[in-house]
Structures are given as structure tokens and as C-alpha cells.
């Protein structure tokens, strides 16, 4: 039988909530008894996805960001969604160093960072409707059974 758990979090698209989102997902993942490196990978990937929603999806305007996370056995799935402006050219956006905001520091590496730190990355976006980022990470350890 599979050991499963689920959580959902919704918060305002404010940059101050990025750290909150990162810590909540890390706390949820902690039931898998992750290594420090695994937790760091998840926090970094979540941080990048949430920051993209706030800065690119909503362009720092009001909106909501939703995080859903599911644990099945030794794997965590994290979905981060926004109803922002969407991505016009997703293929180009997934290229390293591409950015729609060259004036921002450290722009153009978000998706590359997510892809590097997670085992799987899927991005679905529709201009005018928003973006959904789905990431999966497998942990070396098995979760504690309740």
C-alpha cells in the first residue's frame, strides 16, 4: 500500500510570501526524512517557481498563487499555479538565460534551476490565463509509515 499525503496552500502574490511558501513546502517534505541537500533543492525550486509567478505572471500586481503538493511513497510532487499573464513563448522561456525582464538581476535561470534541482519539470502556460509548474523529486530515503 502506498503512503500518501496531500496539502494545498493559497497566498497573495507578494514577494514577502516567497519565503513562507518555500518553508511550508520544505516542512511538508520533511516527513520523507530528506537529506539537507534534498530539502535545499526543493526550497530553491519552489522559490524560483513562486518568484516567477509573482514577478512574471502578475508583474508584481495583485493575484493569488496556489501550491499543491502530494507525497506518494518516496516521491513529492509540487504544483505551483498562477492566473497571471501566462508565457507567450514557452519553448523560448525554458531556454537557459532567456528572460522577458533583462533589467532584473539574476534573470533567465529560473526554469533551468528548477530542472537542475528536481527530477522532473513540466510547465504549462497559456497567454492571458496563467502558468502551472509541476515538479517531482524522488527521495533516497523511504518515508516513515504511520
Architecture overview:
By secondary structure, the protein is α+β, with helices and mostly antiparallel strands. The chain has one domain: 2-Layer Sandwich (Heat Shock Protein 90). The protein is 32% helix and 29% strand. It contains four helices and five strands, in the order E-H-H-E-E-H-H-E-E. The protein has helices at 17-29, 36-57, 90-93, 110-117, and strands at residues 4-12, 64-72, 75-82, 120-126, 130-138. A five-stranded antiparallel β-sheet has the order 1-2-3-5-4, with helices on one face. A hairpin with a 2-residue loop joins strand 2 (64-72) and strand 3. It is globular and about 40 Å long. The two termini are 12 Å apart. The relative contact order is 0.22. The model has no long low-confidence stretch (mean pLDDT 88). Residues 37-141 form the Histidine kinase/HSP90-like ATPase domain. Keywords: ATP-binding, Kinase, Nucleotide-binding, Serine/threonine-protein kinase, Sporulation, Transferase. Its EC number is 2.7.11.1.
The averaged pLDDT comes out at 88
- What is the CATH first-level class name? Alpha Beta
Number of helices: 4
Number of strands: 5
Tell me the β content: 25-35%
GO molecular function, one term: sigma factor antagonist activity
Keywords: ATP-binding, Kinase, Nucleotide-binding, Serine/threonine-protein kinase, Sporulation, Transferase
EC number: 2.7.11.1
Protein name: Anti-sigma F factor
Amino acid at each position: 500500500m502506498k503512503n500518501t499525503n496531500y496539502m494545498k496552500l493559497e497566498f497573495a502574490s507578494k514577494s514577502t510570501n516567497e519565503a513562507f511558501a518555500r518553508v511550508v513546502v520544505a516542512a511538508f517534505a520533511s516527513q520523507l526524512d530528506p537529506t539537507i541537500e534534498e530539502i535545499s533543492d526543493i526550497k530553491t525550486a519552489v522559490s524560483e517557481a513562486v518568484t516567477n509567478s509573482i514577478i512574471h505572471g502578475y508583474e508584481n500586481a495583485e493575484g493569488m498563487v496556489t501550491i499543491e503538493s502530494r507525497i506518494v511513497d518516496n516521491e513529492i510532487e509540487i504544483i505551483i499555479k498562477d492566473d497571471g499573464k501566462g508565457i507567450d513563448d514557452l519553448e523560448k522561456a525554458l531556454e537557459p538565460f532567456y528572460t522577458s525582464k533583462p533589467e532584473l538581476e539574476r534573470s533567465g535561470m529560473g526554469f533551468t534551476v528548477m530542472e537542475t534541482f528536481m527530477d522532473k519539470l513540466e510547465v504549462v502556460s497559456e497567454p492571458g490565463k496563467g502558468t502551472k509548474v509541476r515538479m517531482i523529486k524522488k527521495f533516497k530515503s523511504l518515508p516513515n509509515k504511520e
